[in-house]
C-alpha cells in the first residue's frame, strides 16, 4: 500500500512540476514580446519629442527584427555548447538590461543601441525554447511549442493594448521613457523564476514514453538531413512574410492614423491586431499536426492578408479593427505552425541550429517591412505607401503556398 501511495505521489509531483514548467514557458514568451510591442503605440510621442523622420521612426520598430534575425543562428550554435537553460537566462538578463537602460538615455542613438541589446536577449531566449521543449516534453512537443507561442501572442497583446491607456495613463501622457521601465520589471521577475524553477536536466519518462518519443523523432527525420535544411530556409521565407505583415502593421498604424487625423482609432486597431492572434493561436494548438506541411494554410493566409490590406486602405476607417483582426490572426497562424517544426523534425543536436536558421531568414526578411514603409512615406509623402511592403508579403505567402512542393513530413 505504501509503495502504491509513494508511486501516486511521485506521479502527481511530476505532473505538477510539468504544469509549472509549462506555465513558466508561457511567462517567458509573454516577456519576450511586451517590451517590444509596447513601443508602436508611443511612436508619435517619440517622433515628436526626438524630432525623428519617418525613416528613423520605422527603424526603431525594424531594429528588433533585424537583430533577432541576425543573432538567431549564432545563438543556435551557442546553445549547442552552453545549453538552452543557460542561454535563456542570459537572454532575459540582456532583455531586462536593455529595457532599463534605454529609459535612462532618452535620445536617438542610445535608443537604437539599447533596443539592439534587448533584441539580442530575445534572440538568445527564443532560439533556445524549441530545444528545451524537446528535452523536457518529448511526447508533447507540438502542444508545448504552441503554448510558448500563446505566451508570445499574449505579450504582444498586452504591450499594444495597455501601453497608452494604462501605462501612460498612470505615468503621464508624455512619460514614454517611464513605460520602458514598466515593461522591464516583469522581465526581471521572469529571470528569477527561471533560475529558480527551470529544470536542470530532462525529466524522467517511462520506457514506453521514451520509446514512443524516439520512434516519433526517427519517423520525423526519415526524409534525411537535406530536406530538413531546405525546409528550414523555405519556412524562414514563409515566416518572414507573416512577420513582415505583423510588424509592418504594428509599426505604422499609429502614425498612419495620426496623419489621417483619426488617432482615436489607434488603440482599438492595435489592440485587435494583437488580440485577434490569441483565438487563432489557441485553435492552432490543437490542430497544428493536421495543418503542418500542407499548402492550404499559406494560401488562405496570403489571400486573407491581401484582402485585408486592400480593405484597410480603401474602406472607411471604422473598419480598421476588422481588417486588423484578419491580418493579426493570419500572421500568427504561419508562425505557430512553424515554431514547433524544428523540434519535431530535427535530431536533438540540430534543433537549435535549425531554429536559428529559420528565425534568421524570417526576421531579416521581416526587418525590411517597417523600414521600407517609412522610407517610401518620406519619399512620396503619401501615408498609404507605408503598407506596400505588407501587400508584398501577402502576395509572397500566396505565391509560395501555391507553387512550393510541400510534403507531409517536411517542415515547409
List the helices and strands and how they pair.
Elements lengths: L1 H36 L5 H8 L3 H29 L1 H21 L3 H29 L4 H31 L4 H22 L9 H14 L4 H35 L6 H10 L1 H15 L4 H19 L5 H20 L1 H5 L5 H30 L7 H16 L9
Helix pairs in contact: 1-5, 1-6, 1-7, 3-4, 3-5, 3-9, 3-15, 4-5, 4-7, 5-6, 5-15, 6-7, 6-10, 6-11, 6-13, 9-10, 9-13, 9-15, 9-16, 10-13, 11-13, 12-13, 12-16
Largest sheet: none
Tell me the fraction of residues in β-strands, as a range. Answer: under 5%
Q: What's the tally of helices?
A: 16
Number of domains: 1
Mean pLDDT: 80
CATH superfamily: MFS general substrate transporter like domains
Task: Using the coordinates shown, work out and report the CATH topology.
Answer: Growth Hormone, Chain: A
Overview of this protein structure:
The protein is mostly helical. It has a single domain, classed as Growth Hormone, Chain: A. The chain contains 16 helices and no strands. Helix 4 (84-104) runs antiparallel to helix 7 (176-197) and helix 9 (225-259) packs parallel to helix 15 (351-380). The longest helix has 36 residues, at 2-37. The radius of gyration is 21 Å and the shape is globular.
Comma- or semicolon-separated keywords:
Growth Hormone, Chain: A, single chain, 83% helix, mainly alpha
Brief synopsis:
The chain is an all-alpha fold and 412 residues long. Helices cover 83% and strands 0% of the residues.
Amino acid at each position: 500500500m505504501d509503495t502504491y501511495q509513494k508511486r501516486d505521489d511521485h506521479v502527481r509531483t511530476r505532473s505538477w512540476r510539468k504544469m509549472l514548467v509549462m506555465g513558466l514557458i508561457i511567462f517567458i514568451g509573454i516577456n519576450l514580446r511586451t517590451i517590444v510591442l509596447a513601443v508602436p503605440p508611443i511612436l508619435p510621442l517619440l517622433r515628436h519629442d526626438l524630432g525623428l523622420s519617418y525613416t528613423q521612426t520605422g527603424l526603431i520598430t525594424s531594429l528588433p527584427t533585424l537583430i533577432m534575425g541576425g543573432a538567431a543562428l549564432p545563438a543556435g550554435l551557442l546553445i549547442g555548447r552552453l545549453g538552452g537553460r543557460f542561454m535563456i537566462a542570459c537572454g532575459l538578463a540582456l532583455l531586462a538590461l536593455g529595457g532599463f537602460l534605454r529609459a535612462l538615455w532618452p535620445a536617438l542613438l542610445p535608443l537604437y543601441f539599447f533596443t539592439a541589446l534587448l533584441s539580442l536577449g530575445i534572440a538568445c531566449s527564443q532560439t533556445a525554447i524549441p530545444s528545451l521543449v524537446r528535452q523536457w516534453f518529448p511526447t508533447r512537443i507540438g502542444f508545448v511549442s504552441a503554448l510558448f507561442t500563446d505566451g508570445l501572442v499574449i505579450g504582444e497583446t498586452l504591450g499594444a493594448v495597455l501601453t497608452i491607456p494604462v501605462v501612460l495613463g498612470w505615468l503621464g501622457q508624455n512619460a514614454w521613457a517611464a513605460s520602458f521601465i514598466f515593461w522591464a520589471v516583469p522581465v526581471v521577475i521572469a529571470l528569477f523564476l527561471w533560475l529558480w524553477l527551470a529544470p536542470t536536466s530532462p525529466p524522467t519518462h517511462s520506457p514506453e514514453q521514451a520509446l514512443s518519443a524516439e520512434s516519433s523523432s526517427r519517423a520525423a527525420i526519415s526524409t534525411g538531413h537535406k530536406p530538413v535544411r531546405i525546409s528550414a530556409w523555405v519556412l524562414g521565407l514563409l515566416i518572414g512574410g507573416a512577420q513582415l505583415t505583423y510588424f509592418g502593421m504594428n509599426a505604422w498604424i499609429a502614425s498612419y492614423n495620426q496623419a489621417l487625423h483619426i488617432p482615436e482609432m489607434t488603440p482599438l486597431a492595435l489592440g485587435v491586431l494583437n488580440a485577434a492572434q490569441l483565438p487563432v493561436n489557441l485553435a492552432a494548438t490543437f490542430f497544428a499536426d493536421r495543418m503542418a506541411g500542407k499548402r492550404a494554410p499559406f494560401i488562405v493566409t496570403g489571400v486573407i492578408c491581401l484582402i485585408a490590406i486592400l480593405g484597410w486602405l480603401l474602406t472607411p476607417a471604422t473598419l480598421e479593427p476588422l481588417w486588423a483582426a484578419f491580418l493579426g490572426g493570419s500572421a500568427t497562424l504561419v508562425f505557430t505552425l512553424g515554431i514547433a517544426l524544428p523540434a519535431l523534425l530535427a535530431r536533438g543536436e540540430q534543433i537549435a541550429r535549425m531554429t536559428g536558421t529559420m528565425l534568421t531568414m524570417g526576421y531579416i526578411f521581416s526587418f525590411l517591412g517597417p523600414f521600407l514603409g517609412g522610407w517610401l512615406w518620406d519619399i512620396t509623402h503619401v501615408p498609404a505607401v507605408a503598407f506596400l511592403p505588407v501587400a508584398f508579403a501577402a502576395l509572397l505567402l500566396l505565391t509560395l503556398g501555391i507553387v512550393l512542393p510541400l510534403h507531409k513530413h517536411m517542415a515547409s
